[in-house]
Design goal:
Length: 331
Amino acid sequence: MKRMISVKEEKTTVNKTLEKAGTGKELTREDALELLAIRNGSADYYTLLGTANAEARTRFQGRGTIFAQIGLNASPCPANCGFCSLVKDVFKEKNSFLLPVETAEKMADALVGQKVDELFLMTTANYPQADFLEYAARIHKHLPKGMRFVANLGDFDREYAKKLREAGFTGVYHIRRLGEGRDTQLPPEQRLRTMDAVRDAGMELYYCVEPIGPEHTAEELADEIFRAKDYPVEVMAVMKRVCVPGTKLYEHGEISAAELAKICAVTELCVKPKRAMGVHEPDELCLMAGANQIYAEVSVNPRDLNLSTETGRGASIARTHALLAAAEWKR
Ligand code: SF4
């Protein structure tokens, strides 16, 4: 018969896991599940956040990081992700939009001028792959030598991964989303094959536990935290799901800032990303709980109904600087 664990015993286990986390030792999946079960606002909660914060500040040498993303297009996307403003069930064909490449070039110049660390280009999953390569090659010419350039697009094979690299990309943001195949119409295996193609082409994979909603279990979160460790990745992130009106998952609501900070802290302590630990939506609490990286966004954004997200949900460069300064990350 299974022995019942008393509250005192449970407390001792959490204390030991927090102590282990504080020494920088590698955490197991079981450790992660214990930490994710900590009650928000409890004394252990603040120990967890403080431990992740201290470790991240040491590893990142107190430096905050700003990435910028330009969204190229908006059109009804067949992937039909239950949280996205661009899904075919929500986004009207007549509102389809492609950012003129000349405008994107000016945006890239402005972002580079404002000293962002890395630039991302994002498209919907159905944007033609050949067009994306041409578009990207134009933008790449505007980046200073050595600046990392990251693609965020639909699935692709090994051959296309090589072409992305030739177009100047150094990395790709690609994930197996929470609820992939259930809340999206994309097979999870296909997402993993694309991630393998990125790695095999010698590009850097950027990973994230996302989009986190209140219905996701600690087991589901742990799956993605430990998948990142398996690849491995040097830039990790966590992202909460934003309620976009009209989307399938809207009614589930959103997790709190406190919950996101806890997941951020656990992810940072488990993955220990070498280069950066990111958070969306950017907030000061996560920047005090292991995160040091946030995004500025321009043009289309799947979390926004506004096609110029810089005037909507997307953070401006000025705001990203202010957030990092508020949490005392250096630039
Ligand atoms: S999140 Fe990306 S893949 Fe999913 S519907 Fe939106 S644009 Fe398409």
